[in-house]
Amino acid sequence: MAMNANEKLTALAVMQDAPVIPVIVLDEVAQAVPLARALVEGGIRMLEVTLRTPAALACIEAIARHVPEAVAGAGTVRSQADAQAAQRAGARFAVSPGYTPAVGRACRELGLPLLPGVATGSEIMLAQEDGHTDLKFFPALQAGGAAMLKAWSGPFGDVRFCPTGGVTAANARELLALPNVVCVGGSWLTPADAVRQGDWARITQLAREAAALR
């Protein structure tokens, strides 16, 4: 179902839409639309296109324009300039690898829901001070994985997480079973070889499996 472009989106709504947010790296604009359609067909519509390649902003723009059923977001947002460029391209949400008040302020001023990255208790507290309670735990597996999330459930019982980094189809279910985990982020839905070869059927199948994880 297409989302109204004026529909109010929140970080929590982005997290709750499906069990997995795909972390997407695209080198060519021509890949963006068929990839987005393949993911949506499989039941995944919140799409984090990382700002790691020169083509990323144009890819977000193409998805926003041509795949209304998808909700294009920008990942690897590290500055005010990144946030502004992402919104101009049509991004509906932003994901950052870490958190700074400057990035939080930029997204707030733009009305761009932000999923800030955290890896320590101090970073969680910093994000919370600025009103963020729905956070990306990154890099999740390298920073303690499920054990860390269980430890955080005591002092940070009001925080919800999207673990990203080292998450795979094999370990996603364990993370999703935790009460403070709303969804996970992962790149396994869009394998580089499948994207390169235009194997959209494979990506749709991976998306279907991901959508059924809960």
UniProtKB/TrEMBL annotation:
It comes from Ramlibacter tataouinensis (strain ATCC BAA-407 / DSM 14655 / LMG 21543 / TTB310). Pathway: Carbohydrate acid metabolism; 2-dehydro-3-deoxy-D-gluconate degradation; D-glyceraldehyde 3-phosphate and pyruvate from 2-dehydro-3-deoxy-D-gluconate: step 2/2. The keyword Ribonucleoprotein does not apply. The keyword Cell membrane does not apply. GO terms for molecular function: 2-dehydro-3-deoxy-phosphogluconate aldolase activity. It is an enzyme of class 4 (lyase). Transmembrane segments: none annotated. It catalyses: 2-dehydro-3-deoxy-6-phospho-D-gluconate = D-glyceraldehyde 3-phosphate + pyruvate. Keywords: Carbohydrate metabolism, Lyase, Schiff base. It holds the Pfam family Aldolase. Belongs to the KHG/KDPG aldolase family. Its EC number is 4.1.2.14. This is 2-dehydro-3-deoxy-phosphogluconate aldolase. Homotrimer. InterPro entries: Aldlse_KDPG_KHG, Aldolase_TIM, KDPG/KHG_AS_1, KDPG/KHG_AS_2.
